[in-house]
Amino acid sequence: MEVLYIDPGTGGMLFTILFGLFSVVVFSCRVLLMNMKFRISGGKGKKTDDLKTPLVIFTDHKRYWNIFEPILEELERREREVLYLTCSHDDPVFSKDYKYIRSEFIGEGNKAFSKLNLLNASVVLSTTPSLDVFQWKRSRDVDCYIHIFHAPNDVTLYRMFGIDHYDALIVSGEYQEKQIRQLEELRGITPRDVEICGIPYLDEMKMRLSASGEVPPHDRTVILAPTWGTSGILSRYGERIIDNLIETGYKIIIRPHPQSFFSEKELIGNLMAKYNDPSLVEWNTDNDNFDVLRRSDILISDFSGIIFDYSLVFDKPVIYTKTGVNFAPYDAAWIDEDPWTLKILPYLGFELNDDNAGDIKTLIDTCIEDPSFVSGRQKARSETWFHIGEGTKRTVDFVLKKYDDIAAVRVEKEIRAKEEIKKHKSFSITKGWS
């Protein structure tokens, strides 16, 4: 008996096609139902435009709450109505007592996409890539999709075509706009609105740091905060890096990536079981990383965005590893130069490799005491964090301007339509008299 086998790539493609067909069927049924209601009501049903939600914000996980919280707070302050859609049932938004922000848990995976694909809204703001690439399809009833990035690094580090189908993009530095324009030219995409607004969540973190005061005197403290996967520090160096850090005599904090507890469960479990003496190693799993970043003196990481939070806001040096990432599946493969992220890292700290991992204490001490990294961090800020302190205001201004522009066009169309009806009626009456 032969067993039918479908490889994962083909299976994924078939699933995407089937899901797309399902979405088309559902949408067609919805349109048919609306037409029936319209006819039954004698043509007095509400227009699609009348049912539009002015502004929708979509997040695929609660971990992006830091991106959207300052934006929601500003929209609430301006008394603007917003529908916040989240794929996390325990999203922090549900603990907020907003008056103008309405929040809704839309489920996970296909359940969420089925709702998103049928949205009726003027503007949708999201940090989720791959719109109209996989299951998340553009809705014909959405006028404008705006993407905001969740870290101050390259836009080309998304999976291929990740931002191609957005109508507008909010960025934090000029190099990001340059990369977008390069991709548009290479792929024949009509140039879109790109607005350099800054980084709202870093602005909030900076204000929080200023309000927290000086860090009390403490022993030199090192935080190891790697990403997950085979390129991550814990996967590559494992016990070796932890043993070397313990030998320094410094206070060691290890903060694994949240995904590690799911994708690398055995690895993390074994390490936490072996290094379970809190006097030697502190394992940190707080939802908020502010405290551990504030009380540490140097960060060791790899390809995690925490490098930029630490360098740009807390103004401290980092030790990083080369990623070994294959850029073929990413937009970076289309551009004939190294990503900005890789080019800026040597200005922020030292590289950790097989040659120097055994002398990690010297690496840490030299990195902390080297004055050149102070100017390196300033260089990074000047290139990737424009309009410091103004990110939230500029972001909300841009989003609301897009909505106002759309509303103005809609009103103009309605006025023209009414004028055409008047002309038609006038012509009919004149023709009847003749």
Would you kindly provide a brief summary of this structure?
This protein is α/β, with parallel strands linked by helices. It is built from 15 helices and 13 strands.
Number of domains: 2
Average pLDDT level: 88
CATH topology of the largest domain: Rossmann fold
Which CATH top level class of the largest domain fits? Alpha Beta
Order of helices and strands: HEHEEHEEEHEHEHHEHHEHEHEHEHHH
Give the distance, in angstroms, between the N- and C-terminal Cα atoms: 83 Å
Strand order of the largest sheet: 3-2-1-4-5-6-7
* Helix share, percent: 40-55%
Please describe the biggest sheet, giving its number of strands, its sense, and whether it closes into a barrel: 7 strands, parallel
**What is the radius of gyration computed over CA atoms, rounded to a whole number of angstroms?**
26 Å
The dominant shape is elongated
Give the CATH architecture of the largest domain. Answer: 3-Layer(aba) Sandwich
Low-pLDDT parts are 1-13, 41-45
